Amino acid sequence: xxxxxNWRGLLTDCxxxxxxxxxxxxxxxxxxxxxxxxxALIAVPTALLARGFIRRDLILRRPETTLDPKLxxxxxxxxxxxxxxxxxxTHAHHRVDLxxxxxxxxxxxxxxxxxxxxxxxxxxxxxxxxxxxxxxxLLLPEPQHLEVAGFGTAAAIWxxxxxxxxxxxxxxxxDTSSTTLA
Length: 182
Known about the structure:
The chain is mostly helical. It is built from six helices and no strands.
């Protein structure tokens, strides 16, 4: 617990939730889901997780700490380079349909070393799950690969975020947060 509110961590986590929402929206578009169903499928987990991150970072003041900030910075730079390379390659080879699965693989691969930088094993599993989902989606025809990549990546990010909040004790109520199991 710290005395300061962790706005940077909150914004980073909310950016991840926005990324998951964009992915889920892409999957919903490929699956031709109705707008009300799409909004419900995306808004509920996004709002609940955003509320959890607000509680963790601003109210409880229990931020995740980066134990290796240089590695975390390098990962973020390499992530943007990888995204730029994937966008350029898919555009140059007229395979824009492969952009989202490749993007998912790049993002997933970036979570693995990020887990080492944060000493947070959830990132390792989340990154592996996103890479696996992206790989499986490449085997499917269009638009199914976009549905699987979109919903699968969003689900992995939402599940990983929920586990991170649970591990931080965010879901405990004030009267149970000091209770220990004997």
